[in-house]
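Annotated sample (chain length 266).
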Amino acid sequence: MTHRWLTGLAALLFSSALTFSAEAQDKVTKLKSQYPLCTKEPSTADAEAARNTHKAALEAYDRKEYDKAARLWTEAYGFDCSRPKVFLNLGESFERAGKQCEALAMYELYLERAPGPHPDDIPSKIAGLRTQCAKQPSEKTETKMERPLGIAPWIILGSGGAIAVAGAVLVGVGVTQASDAADKCEDPENRTGCPTTAAEDGEAGETMSQVGQGLLYGGAGVAVLGIILQFAVNGERPVSQEAAGITVLPVATPDYAGLFVVGRFE
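Output written by the structure step:
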């Protein structure tokens, strides 16, 4: 009888192994590794805790709370690992919960660690679960995407736009001031015969207009840079990829005002 039982077990396991993927086997192996071999005897307190947890697991199982029952039996094994028959309970709980790979791992642990004789239906259960586990979709880790520069391009774009607007305002004020000053001259077109104050106002207006033009063109350039960074460099990519660093520094000199961008772009 024992010989025939072992022969049947070997045949079932061999046939199921033909369709069992390496990925599924790896998953089952990892599940089994969560229940290390028993190397110690439980203390009195641990044995008592295991009995109480086992009782709570049975109650959860009777209420058809199979996930909870499996969790409690796992805790019971943590308290007292000297009772490998708990793997039979775990296998049945996971199987009823529809977790075929977990159930398969528990039944295999039961055969490996619990002394015989074992229930006759375990080999056929293992064979069926191997087929079902192999058909389960692989667990895919959702890849989180992010933009490496974050909102920096929009900050650059906004800053450039603000600088350009300020430049446009200065150009308008400067041109108006220079024009008003020229009207006070005897020859407005050539700006000759102007009162002293009118000449000074005209020069100030021209200077203001020139500064405004510099800000206008510089701000427009910064805004264009922000657009380029956003749409050409700042595309979404997996978080695992190292994000490029960027630093935006304001720069102001007698001849220039704008933003200085320091970074590494991949």
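Annotation: The chain has two domains: 8-135, 145-263.
Annotation: Residues 9-18, 240-245, 262-266 have pLDDT under 50 and may be disordered.
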